[in-house]
Amino acid sequence: MASSFSYISQPLKHEHILNEFQAITGLNIDDAIHFLDLYNWKLDNIINDYYDGIKLKHNSDENSSLGTFYSNDDCTQQQNVDSDRHYAELLHLYGDADEWTRQQQQQQQQQQQHQQQQQHKSSQEFIKDTPIYHEKQRLMKCGLHSLNNLFQIPKLFTSHHLEMIVRDFDKRNFFNDYRTLWLGNYDLRVLIEAINRCGFDVRQLNIYHGESIYHLPWDSYFGLLINLNGTHWFTIKNHNGIYHNLDSTLRKPIQIGGKERLIQYLINLIQKTRTVYLFVVSQQMNGKEKFLF
């Protein structure tokens, strides 16, 4: 092969040598310059080795930019076998990396579950240790106090808030017959609107039309709103599994007991009171927008 290039006797410029070498080998410019540098730009020598396949194969690993142009299939297969053997040895010594990852993920999940359980336990203990809130009567604002006792937040609602609801009703041309301003005895519609704005629904139990109170999901309710004889409002609230009467006229809350005691308490209340209106409050499930004022 060398004789076929004997005409290249005089020194050529690097550019001409590079072009000639690229035309023969098809290498890109970076790889071509790399090999020419190895052969001190002696085109005859590098072309001989290129066709003989002696040093180019050996030197191909020295340039990280080279692809698989010079890789021999047999050599590649041997490398694959060596890699597989190496991986098998690692697997034998250290185990499956995927299995280790799965174990790590399981441990992390268990730790997260444990932390969540501890947080829930701490939250439950905090709730258990927190006394129930009881807002007492001031003037004749039993409806207002029943709302704050229902949500267990002091001054969540004020007279100003409820008057804003009244004015909203006025703007909608409702009859102005649902509150006595100087007394603060707000009508049911005002209380329901206030509860709705917190993201809760109110439903009346039709106890005088045959609806039974024995099999209702009492523990799922947020609270009970009760009106006696159309004049007085008060709240019954579940706190740590115990129902409490939070009537704002009481000096302190009255513990009723569990669900069975609650049912019996309501039956006695209905029997001894001329008219009892029972309303259950539940969190909305229909995604309504929540707003206050």
TrEMBL record:
<feature type="active site">
    <location>
        <position position="232"/>
    </location>
</feature>
<feature type="active site">
    <location>
        <position position="247"/>
    </location>
</feature>
<dbReference type="Pfam" id="PF02099">
    <property type="entry name" value="Josephin"/>
</dbReference>
<dbReference type="GO" id="GO:0004843">
    <property type="term" value="F:cysteine-type deubiquitinase activity"/>
</dbReference>
<feature type="domain" description="Josephin">
    <location>
        <begin position="129"/>
        <end position="293"/>
    </location>
</feature>
<keyword id="KW-0833">Ubl conjugation pathway</keyword>
<dbReference type="InterPro" id="IPR009060">
    <property type="entry name" value="UBA-like_sf"/>
</dbReference>
<keyword id="KW-0645">Protease</keyword>
<feature type="compositionally biased region" description="Low complexity">
    <location>
        <begin position="103"/>
        <end position="120"/>
    </location>
</feature>
<dbReference type="InterPro" id="IPR040053">
    <property type="entry name" value="JOSD1/2"/>
</dbReference>
<dbReference type="GO" id="GO:0006508">
    <property type="term" value="P:proteolysis"/>
</dbReference>
<dbReference type="InterPro" id="IPR006155">
    <property type="entry name" value="Josephin"/>
</dbReference>
<feature type="active site">
    <location>
        <position position="142"/>
    </location>
</feature>
<feature type="region of interest" description="Disordered">
    <location>
        <begin position="101"/>
        <end position="126"/>
    </location>
</feature>
<protein>
    <recommendedName>
        <fullName>ubiquitinyl hydrolase 1</fullName>
        <ecNumber>3.4.19.12</ecNumber>
    </recommendedName>
</protein>
<dbReference type="GO" id="GO:0016579">
    <property type="term" value="P:protein deubiquitination"/>
</dbReference>
<keyword id="KW-0378">Hydrolase</keyword>
<dbReference type="Pfam" id="PF14555">
    <property type="entry name" value="UBA_4"/>
</dbReference>
